[in-house]
Automatic annotation (TrEMBL):
Signal peptide location: 1-19
Keywords from the UniProt entry: Disulfide bond, Signal
The UniProt record lists the keyword Repeat: no
PANTHER family for this protein: OS03G0233200 PROTEIN
Paired cysteines (S-S): 28-254, 80-90, 95-101, 148-241, 153-222, 161-178, 182-196, 197-207
Organism: Gloeophyllum trabeum (strain ATCC 11539 / FP-39264 / Madison 617) (Brown rot fungus)
The organism's place on the tree of life at top rank: Eukaryota
Protein name per the record: Thaumatin-like protein
PROSITE patterns named among the record's database cross-references: THAUMATIN_2
SUPFAM superfamilies: Osmotin, thaumatin-like protein (SSF49870)
InterPro entries reported in the protein's UniProt record: Osmotin/thaumatin-like_sf (IPR037176), Thaumatin (IPR001938)
Length: 255
């Protein structure tokens, strides 16, 4: 039986050689509910895994991701309460659909730390990053098995989160996230805001990092992550890996 099973796996996996193995590990001391979203306007190839699941502390899952996965993201949801049908809500990161996110519009509610990928085809590199552009809810790290750069926000930014940015709060009153200055509504006119890079601040030149309040709190703690819309200028926001290397990636919560 064991031999037969091994043979079967080899036969079914071989034609799918142009795929990567992704591993999602919850190294937190608490349960996280990971979620996957693939922007349907960019690509139709999706990971071979449900778009949402429960990850107990110290658990891991691995799955195949097609080589042409484009504009995909994985994040963790905190303090969720789902019923037996998978209906329910989370304090942050929650998506339309409940436990299993809607493939069309199941983007997470902010604040949420995001791991983002566009895998390379036709000689283009893989692009990947950790983004806290939409706020922070969990420390995360993207590793790979080919020696390409680590992307991470490994520090828990919640305990020292500046008070105007703290929240949302769980039922015990503990902060479960640290919002961006934009999301926290510090600028009353969000349509024309230096913190949000909108209106007269909507280009890299008119929305420099120096104009984003609390930028240094996020970037100093998480230098290898994207911390505001035009953070590519930092040189340490967006990472690439030669797609010819066919890297496998590991995403760890609470690395
Ligand atoms: C809960 O889940 C069931 C089964 O998927 C569904 O039919 C129902 O509409 C859901 N209820 C709510 C309130 O979303
Ligand atoms: C898991 O977390 C512990 C601290 O709780 C840390 O020492 C360890 O390096 C982490 N493991 C991984 C794989 O990130």
């Amino acid at each position: 039986m064991q031999l037969f099973h091994t043979g079967l796996v080899a036969l079914t996996v071989a034609p799918l050689a142009l795929a990567r193995t992704f591993t999602v590990t919850n190294n937190c001391s608490y349960t996280v509910w990971p979620a996957i979203f693939t922007d349907p306007n960019v690509g139709t190839a999706v990971p071979d895994h449900p778009t949402g699941w429960e990850a107990p502390p110290r658990s891991s899952v691995s799955f195949m991701v097609p080589d042409n996965w484009a504009s995909g993201r994985i994040w963790g949801r905190r303090d969720c309460d789902f019923d037996a049908n998978g209906n329910g809500t989370c304090v942050d990161g929650g998506c339309n659909g409940g436990l299993v996110c809607d493939p069309h519009n199941g983007i997470g509610a902010t604040p949420a730390s995001l791991a983002e990928w566009t895998l390379g085809t036709n000689g283009n590199p893989d692009y990947y990053d950790v983004s806290i552009v939409d706020g922070f809810n969990l420390p995360i790290r993207i590793d790979n098995d080919k020696g390409c750069h680590v992307a991470d926000c490994p520090v828990d930014l919640i305990p020292d989160c500046p008070s105007p940015l703290q929240g949302p709060f769980d039922s015990a009153g503990n902060a479960a996230g640290c919002k961006t200055a934009c999301a926290a509504g510090i600028d009353h006119n969000q349509a024309d805001s230096a913190n949000c890079c909108t209106g007269s601040h909507s280009t890299p030149d008119t929305c420099p990092a120096s104009g984003v309040q609390y930028y240094n709190y996020f970037k100093d703690n998480c230098p290898n992550s994207y911390v505001y819309a035009y953070d590519e200028g930092s040189g340490t926001a967006l990472w690439t890996c030669d797609s010819g290397l066919q890297a496998d990636y590991t995403l760890t919560f609470c690395p």
